[in-house]
Each structure stands twice: as C-alpha cells, then as structure tokens.
Fold each of these.
Amino acid sequence: MSIPVSIVKCKDYSSNEVDAAVKQAIELVGGLNANFLKGSRVLLKPNILSVSGSETGINTHPAVVQSVIKYIKDAGGEPLVADASGFVSSTNDALKISGILDVCQKEGIDAHPFTKDGFEEVQVQDGEIFKTLYVAKDVVNADFIISLPKLKTHVQAKYTGAIKNFFGVIPQKQRKHLHRMGTFKSLSAGIVDIYSVVKPDFVLMDAIVSMDGNGPSKGDLRQTGLILASPDCVALDSVVCRMIGFKDGEVLYIDGADKRNLGQSNLSKIDVVGGKLSEFNVRFKKPRIQGGNVPSFMIDFVFYLYKKEPVVDKSKCQACGYCVKVCPTSAIILDDVAHIISDDCIECYCCYEVCPHEVIDLKRSFIYKLMSKIKGRKV
Ligand code: SF4
Ligand code: SF4
C-alpha cells in the first residue's frame, strides 16, 4: 500500500489562506480520524528553535500552528503545544517571541516548555547511540502526536523537517552528547533513536517560507509557498528532500528510519497527492556541513560557554523536596537543604521550573555573562 503525502500551494501566512491549505493538505491524505481524536490529548510539536520572531523564518509560523489547533478542536480533540528550544535559548521566551504563545492563548489551549511536565526514562529498542533516553512526559502521555516542522536545511544534519523536529524532546545533556560525537553519521543515528521512541501519528509541514543554505537559523529565506502533510514523517521527509534537490540516501537519518521500519522512504511506494512532485521542484542551496572536523575541545568550549547549570541558593532553600520528586535522575539530595550532584544532572531544568520558593537559578558561565554585559544583554 502506498503512503500518501500531500502538497498544497499556500501563498502567504494570512489566516484564510493557511486555514484552507491546512484543511486541504490534511484531507488529501485521508483526514484525521475524528472518532479517534474526540477527547484525545493531541500533542502539537512545532519547531521552536530560538527566541525569534515569525519574520525570521526560524520557527514554525504561528499561523500554521493556529490553523492546526483549530482543526483539532473542530474534530473534538484536546490540543496542547509543547517544545524545548535550542541550548542557547529560553523556551518560555521563544514561545512568546515566536508568536506561538499568543495564538495558543487566543485558542484557549496550553502551551509550555517540556520542562513543565518533566522527563521520563524510556528504553530505545535497537538503539544505535542510546540504549535509554529521557523523553518529555508530554510525548509519553500524548494520545496522538503531530509534528509541525519548518522546511529548512541544517549545517549538521543537512536537512531538518518532520523527523529531526523531535530532537527537542530530550534534555540538553543528551542532545549535547550527540553533538559532541561530532560526526554526521552519529548525529543521524541518534536522530533515528530519538524518533523511534516518539512514534508520531501525523506531520504537517510549514513550507510557506522556508530556509536554504546554512540553516537552521543562519540560512536564506525562500518563498516556497507550500503546506505538506502525511501520516508518515519518513515519507514526507523523503518527498521534501527530493523536491529541494537532495539525492536519495543523502540525508542519512531518513534511510536510517526506514531501515528500522519506522516509515517509508522509497519514493516508488509513496503516493504524492495534490500534484506531481516534479511540479514543485525547487533547487535549494546546500548547507556547509559543520561538526565533523571541529576539534572536540572547541565543541566543549561552546557547550561550556552556553551551559546553564541549576544552582540552589542554600541560604533560602526551604527543604520542601519538590525538586527531589521531579528530578528524573535522582540528582538532588535533600538533607537540611537541597544539593545537586552535577555529574548526575541531565540539564532538564525541571527543578528550576518546579521550585515553589524560586531559589533555584540557572547559572551561566563567567565568559557568557561577560559577553552579555559587553553587549548590554540580559543574562
Ligand atoms: S524545591 Fe526549592 S525550596 Fe524546595 S527543596 Fe528544592 S530547592 Fe529547596
Ligand atoms: S538536577 Fe534539576 S536540571 Fe538536573 S536533572 Fe535533576 S531536575 Fe533536571
């Protein structure tokens, strides 16, 4: 049986235009089963990479997120938006500045960082890089998961779309572990490991304004004018990569996901609906791949620079123990006050989020603070 991937034209982010394109894209691939969605907790996972406005093209556009929220609500589902941004950014700030928090408030639904509900350790079956992973509880507890990626190239993974969008569901330390391994191959294998524990049910891609060149944040914007949808993230990524000029097999994690039976990457077994794939072809500038030849001490320095470490103000700690209960790795010991064992901490920041007395701070490196002071930026 062929896997459907729809491609629908959408010329801009005006709500009428996006609503019509989103509905058409979903219905061309058979729609979302309203009987199943009724009363279901539906996790929408946009790509909220950084604290950037919608005009930058870095994050999934709020108009697309809003349109999918409306669709799910009309079908009787209970949507929720959650994500965790890249290691430099605060997700709360990114939700606000991206415009996504605003549309969620307008639609009366919850939007929060994954740190709010915390992380849970799960086994990775046949994992190449990870045997277990800490995964956001929002993902583990969802009845239905929808990937809402942005079409962009990527300087480490070559391309980021439906599959790579789930990189954000694990805490910072495990993400850094993958980056530190430093090769395209290991990063790709790790992306498949993460995808294998998420098992999303649907993807709808914002390819109205996309990014080529040195994405995912420093590339060039491209007016591609499309919305794509599929019940299979692997199939959608495969179609998009052909559309933008990658060769089959060039983005390793797409093939890797297929080999582990997580989806279909073979274009002869994918049914493109909404037009012929050749009609949508657009040549993207490839990214300059980084990482493979960067010495590990340089990678460690960058991580040190942007490290955010939870630190307890012991003079104010009330020993209430909330942080101990929420810590997924038992990295906090409580006697008269809370103590964090740095080596066991996976930088999920749940303790920071949960402390009712606000005595946990996220400490930045001295050099970061100095640089921020010079630039007049808030730390
Ligand atoms: S939650 Fe805050 S106040 Fe309570 S034990 Fe932890 S650090 Fe102390
Ligand atoms: S100490 Fe805090 S940041 Fe570290 S793993 Fe525990 S809850 Fe997460």
Amino acid sequence: MMCGSCDLRGPVHLSTGRYVYPHRLDLWDLPFWKCDNCGAHVGCHPGTTRALGLPANAETRAARRLAHAVFDAIWSKKKILSREEAYAWLSHEMSIHPIHIGELNVEQCARVTALCRERIGAS
Ligand SMILES: [Zn+2]
C-alpha cells in the first residue's frame, strides 16, 4: 500500500491504535495502517486488516469526511440519484474508475465537494 499524504508515498506498515491514538484506550487493539514517513494513517474494515482507504493526514481526513458528507447527501438525503447512479456519475466526472473517496487526496476531495454542491444546487 502507498501513502496518500506524502511525496515519498510511504513506507506504510500495519500498526495498532496503541501507536496511532495513544490516548484512545478503546482503540488500542484495533489495526491501523500507518506511514512511517509522515505519520498519516487509516483504519480498517471491522474485524479485518483491510484498509478503509489510503493513509491520510488530518487535513486529508477532514477533506474526505466533508467530500463524503456532501456526496452522500446526493443519494441519501436529497435523493437526486440512487447510490449506484451517484457513484457512476462521480466516477465519470472525476475520471476515476472505480472511485473511492477514501483514496482521494485533498485536491481531489475539494473537487468532489464542489461537484456535489453544484449538483445539489442544480436540481
Ligand atoms: Zn506518508
């Protein structure tokens, strides 16, 4: 796996919450993928060591959260498109196939957020 947050792109190693979130005792036993170079990290799908996306720093994680929230509104709250249609549309607009918001960088997230806001405003 490569790091999504730094120019060296890693190296990325499997770690645990004990090292990623030392103050969160409830997360100590959970697996995280962490970049040795920049400290960016990402959690895993429950019960697995399968990463939820590429390791991200705080800025990237915040950008992904925002992009995901605005994107999800298109199919969950506003019901402009179905979930499948929304992913197909975003994938087309971004020319990324398939698209996973958890793998995007800050610039790509900003574009997703802008596209989705435009889409919501236009309907
Ligand atoms: Zn890194």
Amino acid sequence: VFWFRARCGFAEFAFTDARCDLRDAGENATTRRRLSEAFGVSQVAVMRQVHGADVATADPAVAPEADALIVDRPGVAALVRVADCVPIVLAATDRPVAAVIHAGRKGMMARIASATALELRAHGAGPLHAWIGPHACPRCYEVPEEMAEEVERVVPGTRSVTSRGTPSVDLGAGVTAQLRELDVEVTDLGGCTIEDERFHSHRRQGPAAGRFGAVAALREQAS
Ligand SMILES: [Zn+2]
C-alpha cells in the first residue's frame, strides 16, 4: 500500500497509493487498523480536514477539525488524506517531532504549511525537512482566470497554465515557496493525481473518488 516510505531523524513516514482507500479512515476502525499494522504503529490518528490553517496534535481518541497533525510521541501515527490536494510530511531532523499537512488551494492561501513549520519550531525543532506528495499538477489543475489571479496575489509564483493553455494554479510551487521562506528543506516527490491512476483524484474520478494519504510517526531511536 505504500508508494514511498522513508525515515528522517526520529520520524518514519510513508505516502500511500490507490491500492488502499482511506476515505473512511475517520469512521472505520478497520481501515485505520490495516494502515497501522502495515506501517508498524499501534494507532493512527486522523483529523477532519476543513481547508483551514489550524494545527492540532495527533490523538487517536479524537479527530480534531484541523489541516495539520503533529506527532510528538512514539506509537501513534498521524494521517492526512487527499485526492488532488497536496499531502506534505514535515519532520525535524534533530528532535522527535513531525507533522502531516493537508494543503489544497484554500489551505495554501491560509498558509497551513507555514503555520505547521512554526508550530514544530515551537516544539523545539531545529532544521526541518518537508516531503511533498502527489497532487494535482499545474498542467492539469485548471481554474477560472479570476481564481488564478486571486491565488497569485496571495501566494506569488502560483499562477500557471495547463497543457491546454488555460489558467491554472501551481500548488506545489506555492507550498514550496512558503516552506523555503522558513528555511525548510523541501523534497518534491512528484506525481500528478489527475494524470496518474496510481492515485485517487477528485478531478478525474468525481465524488466517488477514494483518498490516499501520508502517515508519519516517531520511532524510539533516530535513524
Ligand atoms: Zn497533471
């Protein structure tokens, strides 16, 4: 079920793919259990994503309304679910603290990635590394002209064009700029959800689209 898996400092994280549908991970304990077993943690914490800029701490007992979840203790993994929006894993290279982030167009405009990086620094993190997962790419993510302009005003550098020459938004460029502004090292893993059927895509599949995602957890020892 894991498309990409890696370690950084105390953090271990993975991006899933369409072999696993995480859409019901909030309500369905079986979905969470399958994921926690595959990832090797005792529990997975979820959030109710609302395209905002609130950062919460991962707690398997609650599903807070938030768009970023911080993990600060071993055993519990934090999960972000997407189907075109940008999934981001953020990890401190020197401290046991990490986060998963849900950054779509609205969340990017609300600076959710920046808010999460600042929150990790408040947890004592020094150097931070971010991994950007598969999302709707600017060649595919067509939006109305006025929307492209509005997003560009709020997040400069995001105005782009689709492969058909129509206006689009470059979500990856936007969140990368926001993170680099805070001295976060960024690795873009690539992959377009609209073009690549290995991932779930709301644009390509409509309301029936499933969700893939990213999980992050802390291990007892740094790698
Ligand atoms: Zn694309």
Amino acid sequence: MQVTKLNLAERSYDIVVGKGVITFLGGYIKKLELGDSAYVITNSALRKRYGLRLERLLQQAGLEVKFRLIPDSEKSKSFSQLITAIEDISNFDKNRRVFILAFGGGVIGDLAGFVAAVYKRGISYVQVPTTLLAQVDSAIGGKTAVDLAQGKNLAGAFYQPRLVLSDVRLLRSLKPREMRSGLAEVIKYALIKDKELFNYLEKNYPAVLRKDYSVLQHIISRSSWIKAAVVSRDEQETRNLRTLLNFGHTIAHALENALGYRGLTHGEAVALGMLVACGISVRLAKLKSRDAARIEGLISKVGLPVKISGLSLAKVIQAHYHDKKFIGAENRFVLLRGIGKAEVVSNVALKVIREALKERIIV
Ligand SMILES: NC(=O)c1ccc[n+]([C@@H]2O[C@H](COP(=O)([O-])OP(=O)(O)OC[C@H]3O[C@@H](n4cnc5c(N)ncnc54)[C@H](O)[C@@H]3O)[C@@H](O)[C@H]2O)c1
Ligand SMILES: [Zn+2]
C-alpha cells in the first residue's frame, strides 16, 4: 500500500493506493470523524458487484448506509441528477451526520463531489474510484461538475474530498478498453513530468493490461503523486501549473466535441490529442522526432489509436476554438520539450496546428 498526501493546509487529505485497501475505509471514516451515515452514490452494476461488501464494511464501522443509484452514462452528470440527489439526501439526513461516498468512475465522482459541494453549502465526501481513469485523475484534485447542453463540465465547483481510496482490486472487472483509456492519462503524467515512469511503462505495459496488481499500484501511486504535487501548488489553475495536466486535452476536447461525444473514449481522444501536441512540438523544434516516435510507439503498443477516420479537419479546427483554455483570441497549448518536460505555449500558428492534425486524420 502507498499513501500520498495532497497538501492544502487544513484541507489536506490522503490518497491511499493498494490491493485490498477498501478494508481500511471504516477506520479512515472514524478517524476523520466524517459522520455517522454514509450516502453512497454509485450505479446498479457496481452495486451488484461490490455493494454487499461495501455495505458490510460501512456497517461494521457502525455507519448507517443508503445507496443512491444513478444511470450508467455521461448523461448522469446533469442538473436533474444533482437536484434529485440533493433532495434525496436531505430526506435521509434527518437527525444524522451524513457524508457522501462516491463509488464509481469519473461520472459518479464528478457528480457526487458537486452534490457534496452544494448540499448545506458543503458536506464531507470520500472518493472510492473504480476506474483506472478515476484512480489516476478525476478522483484527485477537487474538480467537481455537471454538464450543460452548451458543453461539458460547465457548472461545477472546486471542492476537495476528505480521502481518496484507490483499491486496485476494484479494477478486476474493468473492461480492457476502459483500462487503456485510463492508461492514456498515466502516459500523460509520464510525458509532462516523469521520464522514469515513461521508461517503466514501455517495459511494463503488458503487465498493466493484464492487471498485475503491484504494477498497477506503482503507476497509480506515481500518477497520484504527480497530480497531488501539481494541485497542492495550483489548486484553482491560476498559475499555469495545473494547466500542464491538460497536455493533449485541447485537441482531445475538440475531437470529442466534433464527434458529439460518441465513438471515442476520453482516453482515446487524449492519446490522439497528445500525438497532435507532439507533432506541434516537433514542428516548433522543441521535441526531437526520435522522442515523438518513441511516444507514438508506446501509445500504439498499448492499443490506443494513433489515427482517426470519419472526421473533417475543418470541424475539429472549428471545435478547438471553444476550448476553455483559450484566453481571448489567443490559443494556449501544452507542448513537450522532451519526454518528462512540458511547457505552456501561447499563440501557436493555425498552420502548424492544422499540419499536426492532418497527420492524425485519415480522409
Ligand atoms: N474531475 C476531474 O478532474 C476529471 C478528470 C478527468 C475526467 N473527468 C470526468 O470523468 C468522466 C470519465 O470518467 P471514467 O472514464 O471513469 O468514465 P465512467 O465513470 O463513465 O466509467 C466508465 C465505465 O466503466 C464502468 N465501471 C466503473 N468502474 C468499474 C469497475 N470497477 N468494473 C467494471 N466497470 C466499471 C462504468 O459503469 C462505466 O460504464 C468524464 O465525465 C470526465 O469529464 C473528471
Ligand atoms: Zn483527461
């Protein structure tokens, strides 16, 4: 087991990663004095598979438990789910001290975190992420949100959990495509901050894909450590540091948007976005072609896409103008100066973006 502390003064919390760490849940809840009643937000498949065990663990710690099941879809990150959950929790809350437990992937984590942020102006919540993507990324750092028709994550809050408990055994039921999607974010951390992790992934990716628990523990705790270090220095993305975590995401969001959020998983879009960012970096003479080829090699070996068809270049270019990272008319890209070295660059010429994109789109 490995524990990383995310340092934010009195809002600091532990990120616990390992095999079987879910058994420590009750002990942590008591130690942190989170309350006497757990309002668990999850979906029916996860409840069926893990709910009984989770309920027992919580009851053994003397807690009352209520499950709230939400449909398994990005569509659940909605105002209507938010409001129904708030009303439901307030009915459950009578004479209790209730806290929220998010048990699921990023969809559940983002929604549950936002419910916790707004109910009674903020109650405690715990993240127990069950996808690789949520364990390495979305459960950490306190970005909570729901989607609007106008775009993803447009209504939300920065609101930190009190604990993140990532049990690698929960990943045993995760589909291979979802494993690869999470792996794209791990590759992202390696590329922006950690060359050793990149070397490790090149050597150990087959073990990741067959879910070797000790290899998973290593890459999840390394990723958690990097994200915690960045968030503790730039919690609300005001200093360009947290922006680095957006490597690959400007183009990823444009691809997802141009496809109407169908067809590609988020990690697949990030893989393509990282390759476009590498293409831009090479064209601006920041990154060596040899390193770019190594990066493409890893992305392709783990089974993530390196090219995409059925999309028009114009549509992607149009969609990339809506990126939240745009400031006024200036674009901002995270680019690489080498494996493990990233920087934020403003005002990249459209011609360069277009050429790098063209390389990835099959017409
Ligand atoms: N808050 C942040 O900082 C942040 C960062 C990145 C992504 N996100 C958000 O995260 C969401 C994507 O998260 P995700 O990729 O985890 O998707 P998800 O939550 O939709 O989960 C993917 C699928 O895996 C299933 N699943 C979850 N755990 C499982 C398990 N243990 N075994 C079997 N199946 C399981 C889910 O039911 C779902 O069908 C997006 O909404 C994105 O905006 C947020
Ligand atoms: Zn991402």
